[in-house]
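G., the chain you wanted modeled:
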Amino acid sequence: MNELTAAPRNDIMIRPLVRRALLASAARLRETTAGLDPADRRRHQALDRWFAGFAAEVRAHHEIVEVFVLPNLTARGVIDERTLGTIAADHAWVDHVVGELGDAIGILAFDLGDSADWLTTAARLAEQLELLLTGQLSRESRLVTPLVATSLEPAEHAAIEREILRGVTLRRAPFALTWLLEHIGDSEREALLARISSPSRLMWRSRRRSYRRSTSVAFATVDSPS
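Predicted structure as tokens:
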């Protein structure tokens, strides 16, 4: 299935949308874990399900940078070893905290330990994750994004965008697509929907209410009827 339409009606860039969604999600996670009731198992379980999807999005972003962006820049000799080391260290540390936080939320969800203690751990790790992810994405924007803009050919830009889109609409669907579309504005959502296949649009329309119900439990928000 070709997730890009034959004649795209816009040139919206997906990478900035993903970065923004990652940051918004990390902030929301930090706020939520700071106010969780240790006895609210239903919320713990809903948050555990949501976090599994979010963790996959963090790792997918790292994969795009490591597999599709940095090798192209390295081949052109436009990125130095210090920058490569900085990005690698950022990714490794964020991956570690994501794993630790996933374990903590899982223990809460399945009541495998003292809830109050593990909730304190989860809140601390969520705060740490937001700080680390903010720093990582800021450094990528400052150190890598300008090199991508000036050094890669249009075809290479398009290939990276296609890979991101395939991940969102195929490999990690339905969570990834619904999650991303929930974190962008109406005009951006319309533009992105215009780029994806009819089956993917149908999947989003059929799953968005379920996603909203689940996240409304996880984050204690009022579910949208739309």
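Confidence is low (pLDDT under 50) at residues 1-9, 222-226.

Shout if anything looks off.
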